[in-house]
Amino acid sequence: MVFPEQRTKRGSVGRRAAAAVAALGLLAVASDAAAFCRSTTCRTTKDKECPTDADGCSTDGAKLFWPTSCISYATNRLGTSDLDPADTRAIIRKTFQAWSDVDCADGTVAAMTFQEREPVSCKKSQYNKTGPNVNVVLFQDSNWKYRGIDGTLAKTSVTYNDETGEIYDADIEVNTANNEVTITDDPAKVQYDLQAILTHEVGHFIGVAHSPDPGAVMFASYSPGSMTQRELHPDDVAAVCGIYPENGGVACNTEPRNGFSAECDDPEPKGLCSVQPASSGVSYGALAIVLGSGLVAARARRRNNASMTSLTDGGRR
Q: CB within 10 Å: which end of the chain, N or C, has fewer?
């Protein structure tokens, strides 16, 4: 299917669906042939519950998608103080590569690839409705500002069109303020594996919601010390192949919406890091992956007081 540029009514531009590696799935729709779920524009609120099918996939709203077969992203140049910047960037690159040129069950190759840009100064999850943008991966070392999901490992914010589901922008934030992420291949030294966490996040980045399959990268929990979510499971493969089929007819365009900028306003915001554009028709949500339910005493390091906090039964939501 070709996804042309969409024109919408005023106020129809949906804002941000967030996704993250430590927890919840708020957006989704299941495929007829697989268990995977699609992110949709339906947002659960205190007054409305999105209907779901037997797999827990949302059955309401437009399915999210990028109108291109290739997407550019950049890392924030500061990285995280705990890890070598070059090594960290190499791990991030692997997580996007995991979802690139995926071999599908029918012998085709999924039409999705990624272009890595040079590190940028922007350290903020935001979408500029009238100006240039960047899809950024960044670390929050000092303060995780998202209340209600402070036990999450990472969060992906997606800006989309409320009517069509077309994705305009996506940003990934890693919660290194509360958790010790590692990039080692030594199983004995793994804490919260950055590669596993971000491979999950990239799935949200391209419109995949949480899967009911416990073996999938997109399953909504992570076991501390695990590296299994580094590689796509057949369910994840079915997801990317279903959303971005080889013969979908979508052209490659790595330019962010309204052009590219390595900078963003207020790069060290005082308040929430995700800023909504000035528009009355905007919606914002968050998806996350929490520390897997049923885990025993998953530990998260607190930088501010150097104490160890125990998170159990899926952490805090």
A: N
